[in-house]
Design brief:
Layout: E1 9-17, H1 23-33, E2 39-56, E3 61-67, E4 71-83, E5 86-96, E6 102-107, E7 112-124, E8 130-132, E9 139-141
Antiparallel strand pairs: 1-7, 2-3, 2-4, 2-6, 2-7, 4-5, 5-6, 8-9
């Protein structure tokens, strides 16, 4: 059964990343700098390398792959929550090469900014918390 909650917007934070920075590490750093514990994120820009992942249910683990070329970030959306008090960024990203060929998956550490990334974080009034799900073994959003 679907579980849902409602919250309001607390504030909106904008950030611009510079060449050479790691996208995921900067999202985490911006969240910590501004005290964001929960929210929604989106970003666009360009990266010189994309490290993406997907959850392999049969193996119950994340598999990774790398796109080692300049690509545009067509879309990246996700959320910020906490697990055992630590910030968790869960985002999916779609990147495209110069021909329009796209790759997509979980945003992983190793995505390096080539030109810039423009990040928007919409902080929520309530704190979203993740708890371990015994069926999947993943830390899923805990919504009662």
């Amino acid at each position: 059964m679907v579980r849902s909650i409602q919250t309001g917007i607390k504030r909106v934070i904008f950030a611009r990343m510079d060449p050479g920075e790691d996208v995921l590490e900067v999202i985490e750093a911006v969240a910590v700098e501004h005290g964001v514990r929960s929210g929604q994120l989106s970003l666009i820009g360009a990266i010189s390398k994309a490290k993406l992942g997907y959850f392999h249910r049969g193996a119950a683990e994340y598999k990774h792959f790398t796109v080692d070329e300049d690509v545009e970030v067509v879309s990246c959306i996700g959320d910020i929550s906490t697990h055992d008090g630590d910030i968790v960024v869960h985002a999916h990203i779609v990147v495209a090469d110069e021909t329009g060929k796209c790759w997509a998956g979980h945003l992983m550490k190793g995505c390096e900014v080539s030109v810039t990334i423009e990040l928007v974080i919409i902080e929520t009034e309530i704190e979203l918390i993740r708890k371990r799900d015994d069926v999947t073994g993943l830390n899923l959003l805990h919504i009662d």
